[in-house]
Design goal:
This protein is mainly alpha-helical. The chain is built from 35 helices and eight strands. Helix content is 60%, strand content 3%. InterPro entries: ARM-like, ARM-type_fold, GRV2/DNAJC13.
Length: 660
C-alpha cells in the first residue's frame, strides 16, 4: 500500500515527490519496480498489480519473468538482512541505481523497450505522440556520432560501433512503426526532416538508408509534413539513393522504397521544381532505361509521368525528357508505365517510332554517364543545381535524314496513311504550322519538305475527317489563301491548293474560305499562272460552289471574269485538259446558275458562249466531246456531247458468233 501511495503521487503529477525530500525515493521506486509498474500502482487496483508481478510478461513497457522477480527478491532480502545486522543499508543509493540484468542489454527510449516494440508494433501505446518525440530526440542525440561515422567510413580510417549503429537502426524502425500504426503522430517529425534526410548520406550503410527512406515514406501522406520537407530543401539526399551500385539486391529494395516515398511528394509543385533542379529526371531515366528490376523501371516511368502532369513544371519536364527519348515513350508512360518499359526493350519501325538496339544502347550509356557525373558532384556539394544545356541533343543512330513533326516520321506516315496517330489534333496543328513556315523558305530542300508535309496533311484529313471541324478555329485558312499568289516556287501554290481542297470536304471550312478576302482572285491567279495546277484548282472551286449559299462567290466570279476563263477551258481547240478538269468546270458553271442573286446574269453570259451550248444539257458532271463515237473525253472528238463515263456509242458487240 505504501508503494501504491507513492505511485499515486507519481502518476498524479504531484510535485511532492520531486521536492528535496523525496527525489531519492522516487528514483528508487522507479528503478526497483520499473516506471510501468509504478504507474500501474497509481492507476489500477492492488490486486491487478500483484497479478502482474506474479506473471511472466514481455511487452514494449515491461519485461517481467521469473528471473526479474528472483533478482528483485534477492536484492531486497540482502538489503534487509544487512540493514538488520549492521543497522545501515549497504546500498547507499537505496536502489536508485538498481538495474535488472535482463534490461541491461535493452535499448529503452521513452520508457519503452524498443526491441520488443518492433516485434509488437501494433501494441497499443499509452502516449504514441510522446514516444515519437523521444525517438526523434534519440536520433538527434546520435547525429554527431553518425557524421563522424560517415567520415570514418568514407576515409577508411576506422570502424563504427556496431552496438550503437544497431540501436540507431532499431530507433528508425520503431519510428516507422509508430507512425504507421498511430495516425497523426507523423506531425511530430515536422522540423526534423533535415535530420532524417541526412541519414540518407550513409551510402555504406544500406540497411540504415532503407530504414530512413521508410520513415520518410510513412510521413509523405501528410500534407503538412510534405510542406515542411519542401521548406527544408533536402530532396537531393533522397534522389541520390536512387543511384545504382554493385549491390543489386540492396539497390532494388532501396530504390523501390525511394520511389514509393517520392510518389506522394511529387504532388507538391515546389518539390517537383526542386526535383527538377536536383536532377531527378536523370536518376529516374537511368532507372527506367537500365535497371535490371522491371518493377523499378515501371515505378520510375510512373513517377516521370506524374511529374509531367504538373501544371507549372510539367511542360518543362516533358521538354527535358524529349531530349533523351522519343515522344512516344513519354506518352506511353502516361498511358501505361508497364507498356512503356516493354516498349523500350523492343524494336520498332513505324510512323511514330524508329527504335532498335543501337538507339537503346546510346540512350542507356549517355544517361548512365551523366547520372554518375551528377552524383559525384552532389556528393561534394549537395546544393549543386542540375540544368540541361539548351543546345543539348542526343543524336540517336536511327532516323537520320527523317523529317519528324509532333513525333511522327512523315516519310513512314505517308507510306502508311492508315496509321492512327496518338494525338491527331496536335499532329495536324504542327503540320499546318510547319507548312506555313516552309512556304516562307526558298531553298530547294524546303520545297521537298513542303511537299512531304502537304502529303501528310491530306493523308491525315482523309483518314480522320472529323479533324476538319477544328480547322477553322486554328486560323490557318486565310494564310493559305494568301499564299496562293506566292511566286517564289510553284510548289507553294500547289501545296495551298491541295490543303484547301482537303479543307473543302467540310462545310464549316468552306464557309470560312468563302469569308476570306480575295479567295476567287487568288484561285484565278493560280489557274492563269500555272497550267499544271488547273486540275486541283477546279476541284477546289467545284467543292466551293456546291453549297447553297454561293451568291457572294458567284458575284466575285463575275467581277473577276472567272466565268470567261472557265469557258475557255472547255474549248478543246485551245488547250487539252484532263477529263476530270472539264467535268469540274461544267459542274462549277451549273452551280453558278443556281445562284438566287446572280443566276440570271450567269445564264446570260453562258448563252453567249458557243462552247457552253455543247455542254448545257450534260447531266451532273459527266459529258463527252464532239466525236463520231460516243466515248470518254480522252477519246476522239465527236460532234455530240455525251457522258464522261459512257462508253463508245458504236455497238461493240459482234454481229455474228466467232468462227468455230
Amino acid at each position: 500500500m505504501a508503494s501504491a501511495r507513492i505511485a499515486e503521487d507519481l502518476s498524479s503529477k504531484s510535485d511532492s515527490l520531486d521536492s528535496q525530500l523525496y527525489p531519492l525515493i522516487r528514483r528508487s521506486t522507479l528503478c526497483l519496480l520499473t516506471p510501468y509498474l509504478v504507474r500501474q500502482l497509481g492507476l489500477t487496483s492492488t490486486a491487478d498489480v500483484l497479478k502482474t508481478l506474479n506473471s511472466n510478461i514481455e511487452n514494449p513497457y515491461l519485461i517481467w519473468d521469473n528471473s526479474t522477480r528472483a533478482e528483485l527478491t534477492d536484492y531486497l532480502e540482502t538489503q534487509e538482512r544487512e540493514t538488520m545486522r549492521s543497522g545501515e543499508c549497504p546500498d547507499t543509493s537505496y536502489g536508485s541505481t538498481f538495474e535488472f540484468s535482463s534490461h541491461k542489454e535493452e535499448l529503452i527510449v521513452g520508457e519503452i523497450f524498443v526491441r520488443i516494440y518492433n516485434e509488437q508494433p501494433m501494441f497499443p501505446l499509452e502516449n504514441a505522440k510522446g514516444f515519437t518525440i523521444d525517438l526523434i530526440d534519440y536520433l538527434g542525440s546520435q547525429a554527431q556520432y553518425l557524421q563522424s561515422a560517415l567520415n570514418l567510413v568514407s576515409n577508411s580510417t576506422g570502424s563504427v560501433n556496431s552496438d550503437r549503429m544497431k540501436n540507431i537502426k532499431m530507433c528508425l524502425l520503431a519510428l516507422n512503426n509508430v507512425i504507421v500504426h498511430n495516425n497523426g503522430v507523423e506531425m511530430q517529425c515536422i522540423g526534423h526532416f533535415k535530420l532524417l534526410f541526412s541519414l540518407l548520406r550513409l551510402d555504406q550503410m544500406s540497411d540504415l538508408q532503407t530504414l530512413a527512406v521508410n520513415v520518410i515514406a510513412s510521413v509523405s501522406g501528410n500534407q503538412e509534413c510534405v510542406q515542411d520537407i519542401a521548406s527544408s530543401e533536402v530532396l537531393v539526399y533522397l534522389l541520390m539513393v536512387l543511384r545504382p551500385t554493385s549491390q543489386q539486391t540492396d539497390d532494388f529494395n532501396k530504390q523501390l522504397a525511394v520511389l514509393t516515398a517520392l510518389t506522394p511528394l511529387m504532388f507538391n509543385t515546389r518539390l517537383i521544381k526542386e526535383a527538377l533542379s536536383k536532377g531527378a529526371i536523370l536518376y529516374l531515366l537511368t532507372l527506367y532505361t537500365s535497371s535490371a528490376n522491371f518493377e523499378v523501371r515501371e515505378k520510375s516511368a510512373e513517377l516521370l509521368s506524374k511529374m509531367t502532369s504538373d501544371k507549372l513544371n510539367g511542360p518543362r519536364i516533358k521538354l527535358v525528357l524529349s531530349k533523351f527519348l522519343p515522344l512516344l515513350f513519354i506518352d506511353a508512360m502516361k498511358d501505361s508505365p508497364q507498356t512503356a518499359a516493354n516498349l523500350f526493350d523492343g524494336t520498332q519501325e513505324n510512323p511514330e517510332l524508329i527504335w532498335n538496339d543501337s538507339a537503346r544502347d546510346s540512350v542507356c550509356q549517355t544517361l548512365t554517364k551523366m547520372c554518375e557525373q551528377l552524383y559525384n558532384e552532389q556528393i561534394g556539394n549537395p546544393s549543386a543545381v542540375w540544368k540541361i544545356p539548351n543546345d543539348f541533343e542526343l543524336k540517336l543512330p536511327v532516323g537520320f535524314g527523317e523529317f519528324v513533326i509532333a513525333g511522327v516520321y512523315l516519310r513512314l506516315y505517308v507510306q502508311n496513311p492508315s496509321w492512327v496517330v496518338r494525338k491527331p489534333k496536335e499532329f495536324l496543328t504542327e503540320l499546318l504550322d510547319s507548312a506555313k513556315i516552309l512556304m516562307e523558305k526558298e531553298e530547294q530542300t524546303q520545297v521537298e519538305k513542303l511537299d512531304l508535309v502537304t502529303h501528310a496533311i491530306t493523308c491525315l484529313l482523309q483518314a480522320q475527317t472529323s479533324l476538319l471541324d477544328s480547322v477553322p478555329a486554328m486560323g490557318h485558312i486565310q494564310a493559305f489563301v494568301n499564299s496562293l499568289s506566292n511566286k517564289r516556287h510553284e510548289a507553294i501554290p500547289r501545296s495551298c491548293l491541295q490543303i484547301l481542297r482537303q479543307f473543302a470536304e467540310n462545310r464549316t471550312c468552306i464557309e470560312t474560305m468563302i469569308g476570306c478576302k480575295y479567295l476567287l482572285t487568288q484561285v484565278f491567279f493560280v489557274i492563269k499562272t500555272y497550267e499544271t495546277l488547273t486540275d486541283i484548282a477546279c476541284e477546289l472551286l467545284s467543292k466551293l460552289f456546291q453549297i447553297d449559299t454561293i451568291d457572294e462567290l458567284v458575284g466575285q466570279a463575275i467581277k473577276t471574269e472567272l466565268i470567261h476563263h472557265l469557258l475557255k477551258l472547255l474549248d478543246s481547240n485551245q488547250i487539252q485538259y484532263t477529263t476530270s478538269t472539264k467535268a469540274q468546270v461544267v459542274q462549277i458553271l451549273k452551280h453558278m446558275l443556281k445562284s438566287g442573286a446572280y443566276g440570271q446574269q450567269v445564264s446570260e453570259l453562258l448563252d453567249k458562249s458557243m462552247v457552253w451550248s455543247e455542254y448545257r444539257d450534260q447531266k451532273h458532271d459527266l459529258f463527252i466531246t464532239s466525236s463520231q463515237f460516243s466515248g470518254y473525253l480522252t477519246g476522239p472528238t465527236v460532234q455530240t456531247a455525251g457522258y464522261l463515263t459512257q462508253g463508245s456509242s458504236v455497238n461493240s458487240m459482234p454481229s455474228s458468233p466467232p468462227p468455230l
